[in-house]
Design a protein that fits this description.
Residues 5-188, 276-342 form the FAD-binding domain. Helix content is 33%, strand content 29%. It has helices spanning 13-24, 49-57, 61-67, 105-118, 163-167, 236-243, 248-256, 299-314, 320-350, 359-369; strands at 5-9, 28-33, 44-48, 69-71, 73-78, 83-88, 100-104, 122-125, 129-134, 139-143, 148-151, 153-156, 175-187, 195-199, 205-210, 215-222, 264-272, 278-279, 282-284, 290-291.
Length: 374
Amino acid sequence: MPVHKVLVVGGGITGSVLALALAQRGADVELVEISPQWFGVGHGITLQGNALKALRSVGVLDRVLARAVPFDVLRLLRADGELITELPTPHTGGPDLPATAGALRRDLQDALCDAVYTHGVTVRLGLSVERLDQSPRHVDVAFTDGSTGRYDLVVGADGINSAMRSLIGIVEKPRPVGMSIFRVVADRPAEMDCHEVYYGGPRYKAGYSPISPGQCYAYLLDKNLDASLVGPRASLSLLRERGAGYGGTWGKIIASLTDDTAVDYRWIEAILVDGPWHRGRTLVIGDAAHACPPLIAQGAAMCMEDAVLLAELVTGEEPLEKALDHFMSRRLPRVRTVLENSLQLAEWEINPDTPGADPARIMSETLDSLTAAA
């Protein structure tokens, strides 16, 4: 096969799925993660059917679904909780998988971490890449702990603020899209059975999704507030203030939050490397190459699709250069569609009186288009 020894930089969802997929195809995989501890942190995550399909391909779907909450509809509500409409969600992973599942990010990452170790991947924590030196046949890597290594392929899966992106010579950087998001994990109200979104309130929108038998993930999309507020321990009182004006189950969730609730607040950013994501025997994938506003809930799916396809192609029969070109020809049009439509939705959220704005249509059309193979 074109590559045997592969370095994966970044141990999040993208890097974990890639390392696992490569190891299952016989590659000798080393994964480095800059954090000294390796586990899932943060809020809930929405996994569309194509994300579930990727998890099935690397053998962790059953474990994830044992804790996750599958559902097949999306409800749109007015700010007071009155139903606007209920939309069936396309089965982007095929008819034999749920259309969507809500999961706790920690549950997903724990399943991936355990599988990565089980399949013999060498995992090194608390370090990253300091320098790369390429030749036509290999890449020599110097790590931040002073060690070195030689690899057939080096993949940056280190997220939207990727250090690998600039290290391999890609100049694009993420940019704010003009909206921000508050996120919390809370107790799940008994009536919550799917993802619900509230429109017409004082902010861009509010919503929530069940993520386990007893938990839910709730969010509020707002304008960009002061950058000093950004972080994983934002003010609960600020969330309550900004989220006032939404009723129904949303109001019940916010009222139930205790003073020690972790509130994550972020400016939403986007990036698309609109050209080859590879330079010789190095490349970036996932959020390091493309990241979009979370308005279609396809971020994780696009990252996992990258990982599964890349592992398939670089362990196949094509020479590496052709395999990477083939990878780009299949991935770039698909992620561009998701990114551009997500940015259009963000624009309509920020400017809801835009003539012709139709968020439900563009969401449905995007998901319908993704039912085709990745």
